[in-house]
Design a protein that fits this description.
The chain is mainly alpha-helical. The protein has helices at residues 9-24, 31-38, 42-48, 52-75, 81-98, 100-107, 115-143, 152-172, 179-194.
Length: 199
C-alpha cells in the first residue's frame, strides 16, 4: 500500500474539522461532527488533540500556513523591503478577504467563532505574522535597505499594528481614503523610517 495515498489521521481530522468549522462555525460544530466527517472515532481525535478548542487552533494554524506559504514568496523577492511590506499588506487583504475562517478568527466577527477561542486564534495569527515581519526586516538589514539601529522586534510589532489597521479598514470597507492611496502613504512613512540615513 502506498503510504502517500492514505491521509494521516491527524491531517484527516484537521481537514474534517476545517470543513465543519467553515460551514457551521465553532459553536455549532461538535466533536462527534468532526469525527464522523473524518471517518474516525473520538478516541482517535483525543490522541491528537485535548479539546475542540485545540482542534480549532490546529485548523487556524493550517489555514494560516497556507497564507504564510504565499507570503514567503515575498521574502525571497528582490524588491526593497518597503515594497515587499506593501506587497505583504496587499496579499493579506486579498487572502483574508476571501478566507472567512481566518478573518473571523483574527477580527472576532461573523458567526464562525467568538470568545476565548477567537482570542487564542488571533494570538496565533499575530505571532506568526509578526515573525514574518521580523524576518523581512532582518533581510532588509542584511541587504542594507533597513537601518542597522532599528529594534527589529519593536519595529515588527509596530508594523503589524499599523498594517492591520490598514487591512481591517480595507476588509471592513470603512476607510475614508482609497486603499491604493493608504498603501502608498504607509509605504512612504515606513520607507522613511526604515531606510538607512545617509550623512
Amino acid at each position: 500500500m502506498d503510504e502517500g495515498s492514505v491521509e494521516a489521521p491527524e491531517r484527516r481530522l484537521i481537514s474534517a474539522a476545517e470543513a465543519r468549522f467553515r460551514r457551521f462555525g465553532y459553536k455549532r460544530t461538535t466533536i462527534d461532527d468532526i469525527t464522523a466527517e473524518a471517518g474516525t472515532g473520538k478516541g482517535s481525535l483525543y490522541l491528537h488533540f485535548t479539546s475542540k478548542q485545540a482542534v480549532y487552533l490546529a485548523v487556524v494554524e493550517a489555514a494560516l500556513e497556507r497564507f504564510v506559504a504565499a507570503a514567503s514568496h515575498l521574502l525571497d523577492a528582490s524588491d526593497p523591503v518597503p515594497v515587499r511590506l506593501r506587497a505583504l499588506v496587499e496579499l493579506t487583504i486579498e487572502h483574508y478577504g476571501r478566507d472567512e475562517l481566518l478573518h473571523a478568527s483574527l477580527f472576532g466577527k461573523g458567526g464562525l467563532v467568538d470568545g476565548d477561542v477567537a482570542r487564542m486564534a488571533a494570538d496565533v495569527q499575530r505571532s506568526r505574522i509578526r515573525s514574518l515581519l521580523r524576518e523581512l526586516l532582518a533581510i532588509g538589514r542584511r541587504e542594507g535597505s533597513v537601518r542597522a539601529d532599528i529594534d527589529i522586534d519593536a519595529a515588527a510589532a509596530v508594523l503589524f499594528e499599523i498594517g492591520w489597521a490598514v487591512v481591517r479598514s480595507a476588509l471592513e470597507g470603512d476607510s475614508r481614503i482609497p486603499l491604493d492611496r493608504a498603501l502608498g502613504t504607509l509605504n512612504q512613512i515606513v520607507g522613511l523610517g526604515l531606510l538607512p540615513r545617509h550623512r
